[in-house]
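For the sake of clarity, the format in which proteins appear in this thesis is described at this point. The record quoted next illustrates the convention:

___
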Amino acid sequence: TALAAMPHSVMDTDLVQGTGYYNVIKEVAGSVDFVMSQYYNGVTRPSTDGINGGVFSALSHFENLVADCFGGNAAKVVFGFCISGCAETSSNSNRQQAARVVRELKDAFPCSGGAFFWNAQHDMMGKWSRVVSSALSSPAKGC
């Protein structure tokens, strides 16, 4: 049997505790390799508010997913950014903002599932991904 992953990127609003999608994820969490939560265009603004700031904390959202759905396994949650195209919701993350958020996330969850970004065509010459990847690649003990 071949192993396969079926990636699915979910709005942070749909992964708020008590929503229908959240309840489905919680129910099937044992069968989920990872979930990619979009921390843009929804209720969180980590790149402008900081990971633990704003009206709705991205860190609290992430912590809840990890604890309530995945039994503390932060590797099951991938943190999503928008490089561009999200200005209407003030959700764009430049590479320095995203790297700062990733470092803050690693401080809280050294073994998180990493990061993804929306719209690869806007990562000109890999400038965004190189900076964020560098922030992600610092070794974490016990992962």
Q: What stands out?
A: The CA atoms of residues 4 and 102 lie 27 Å apart. The chain has a mean pLDDT of 91. Strands lie at 9-11, 35-38, 77-82, 115-118.
